[in-house]
Every structure is written in C-alpha cells, then in structure tokens.
Design brief:
Elements: H1 16-42, H2 44-72, H3 77-82, H4 87-104
C-alpha cells in the first residue's frame, strides 16, 4: 500500500501496541535529535551561525514528544489533541483529525 499525504489509512491498523511502539521510537529519535542540537550548540561559532535552525530542532523535539504522548494516551481523542502545548501543532492535528472524520462520515 502506498502511503502519502492524500492517503487515509484504516484507523484499525494502528492498535494500542503499534501506537506504543511508535511512541517509543519517537522518544528515542527525539533524544538523538536533542543530543545533536546540544552538540551543535556547544560550538559558539556554530551556535551563532545556525541559532534559528538549532531552535527549530527544539520545536521539532517538542512536537515529537507531544505526538508520542498522544499515541501513548488512552484519553478521548479530543482530550489528547487539547493537551498539545504547541498551539500550531495542536491546531494542525485537530483540523486534520476532524477533516478525516468528516470524509469518513
């Protein structure tokens, strides 16, 4: 099956076990990405030259943790989405979720 932005996967495919494994992978990747950002930021010249990119890495790691939290949670979906502290991410996920619900109904 080809997966892309315009493909809506069957929601029954992502069960609790797969969601937990995906969350663990996101957390592990987040740790690696954080370590990379720390290493890059430890060099003053690199930090000065690439401050905005290094800050973007921090936003990405926060998003990954938020997504991992959603995958691990057993709360109602709207509560999971509402708990996302990165406002733009929460908005995109909420909008995408509701849009796909509307298409299915």
């Amino acid at each position: 099956m080809k997966m892309g932005h315009d493909v809506t996967p069957d929601p029954s495919v992502i069960d609790g076990v797969l969601a937990a494994v995906l969350a663990e992978e996101l957390v592990a990747l987040t740790g690696q990405l954080s370590d990379l950002a720390y290493d890059l930021g430890s060099n003053p010249e690199t930090l000065r030259a690439h401050m905005s990119s290094i800050q973007l890495v921090d936003v990405i790691t926060q998003a990954q943790i938020a997504i991992a939290d959603i995958l691990r949670s057993d709360a109602p979906i709207e509560d999971r989405i509402a708990s996302i502290t990165l406002e733009a991410l929460g908005q995109r996920i909420g909008d995408g979720y509701r849009k796909r619900l509307d298409v299915r109904n």
